[in-house]
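Below is how a single chain appears once it has passed through the pipeline. First comes the sequence as given, then the structure the pipeline wrote out for it. We keep one example in the README because the format questions we get most often are answered faster by looking than by reading.
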Amino acid sequence: MSAPLTGQNIHPVSFSDALGERYLAYALSTITSRSLPDVRDGLKPVQRRLLFAMQQLKLDPASGYKKCARVVGDVIGKYHPHGDVAVYDAMVRLAQSFAVRWPLVEGHGNFGNIDGDNAAAMRYTEARLTDVAVALLEGLGEDAVDFRDTYDGEEQEPVVLPAAFPNLLANGANGIAVGLATSIPPHNAGELCAALEVLLGNSRCSIDELIACVPAPDFPTGGILVEHADAIAEAYTTGRGSFRVRARWQVEDIGRGQYQIIVTEIPYQVQKARLVEKIAELLQARKLALLADVRDESADDMRLVLEPRSRSVDPVMLMETMFRQTELETRISLNMNVLDAAGVPGVMNLKQVLRAFLDHRLDVLLRRTANRLKHIAHRLEVLGGYLVAYLNLDEVIRIIREEDEPRPKLMKRFKITEVQAEAILNMRLRALRKLEETEIRSQFEALNKEQAQLKKLQGSEDRQRSVLAKEIKVMK
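Resulting structure:
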């Protein structure tokens, strides 16, 4: 029961100060925990939690699908205390090939379409991870990243994913926080790998060298980029700008001197059904003097048919009119406002984003190496104890049979550690064969060699760069 209100626990506070303090806390929470992606893995918290929850459910690409309702239930119950609709919407977007360049979720069922139709309810749809998502999660069990307590303190969740894939630029991101927003279009992963190789080989390379590798965004829905190269370079240099994208079209001859225009690709994030509806409204309002009719003949492929008013209408002039008045031409903004490794929001240029990804991958490499060395050291210690046991088998058996407390006696007699003594006491009788001794010696030598290689890796920047370069080639 709360304490009664008395003069002793009431403090006069300015209303503007109290409001400002609370609004600032809300704004910071929105910026860091909801709307802006992390530069290292390119994910917002809800997306990261979705992928982690799916990994915990063992929904890898080789396994079967599970109901999306099960995944969403785990996410909101364990990691993300928000509404199920928002979580499911985030999951659906990760599965839509027309929304993200490299889907992270493989959906089974109705996950919406480019016309703007919604996905089926989560109790009907199923999902599992894609290979790209597996690459983002690779190394989570090897101390590659930090973990933190979940909101209720009952579970642990990763602060960031190891991310063996440049997800931020490859899939893009959109988000609106309090006073801040981010808008990053998708890019071609092969071009990003080429840019990473250039930056890895020369950390002082210019942004122009990187732009030569990543000349422009690569939209999943296609289209034609009609922005000037200087404007694109300026956008990548400053981290802010926009790109003008047009639909791809062609003239189809239908005989007797007549033709029709076929639109095969539309700009990114344009809903096809809404586009056709808007064109029809303009036609009805008589604002498209050169156009007679519009039809959607799309099946698996995109096919919008535009009929000119007459055969004498110039197709280029008709399309210029359409670009000017409809969403057959749109502007895609670029605002690379992201959270850095310290969780501080800021606008980064192309080089800074790629540099942050490489720095993260190097940190992951060193942490996984240290973790592997720790496990090797423990295993070598255990194997050393086994070898002592094989060399002194009769004495070991005598001590175990005759002593009430054999562990301290073994440690004192053979100068071994507590871990080694415990390992000897836990050995099975079937492991006392001569063949087992040979296998243990072989394993001991192999682990010693691996340990030496990993220690060389820890001490050599050239070796570390070489490993990162191999990872990038594998990614390609």
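The chain has a mean pLDDT of 93.

See the next section for the split statistics.
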